[in-house]
Amino acid sequence: MQQSVGTVETRGLVGAVEAADAMLKAAKVEVQDFSVVGSGLVAVVVSGEVAAVQAAVDAGLAAAEAIGEVVSHNVIPNPSGEVSKLLD
Questions:
Q1: How many angstroms separate the Cα of 15 from the Cα of each of 28, 33, 34, 47, 51?
Q2: 30-63: b (≥16 Cβ within 10 Å) or e
Q3: Continuous segment of H or E residues that includes residue 68
Q4: Which of 21, 23, 72 is nearest to 52 (CA)?
Q5: pLDDT < 50 regions, the chain
Q6: Do 5 and 79 form a contact (C-beta atoms < 8 A)?
Q7: Who is most buried in 3, 25, 38, 80, counting CB within 10 A?
Q8: Is 45 helix (H, G, I), strand (E, B) or coil?
Q9: 84: helix, strand or coil
């Protein structure tokens, strides 16, 4: 099973909570991190199989855009072990 990591970053907490909810409902993924970055930015990081993470990020992006501002989003298929250390 190939793992991947997906992120959605929003401006504001409400959009991030909405994104996280949509991501978890859309696919079999796990939240690895939910952090208030600063200056109003909030990041949600999920992991799981590549297709599930892509579906989750797409759903989270749509949900967050419907009620707030999405700053960035990304899916990293098969991240290196060094990247995984950043999320531990």
A1: 20, 15, 12, 19, 23
A2: eebeeeeeeeebbbbbbbbbbebbbbbbbbbbeb
A3: none
A4: 23
A5: none
A6: yes
A7: 3
A8: strand
A9: helix
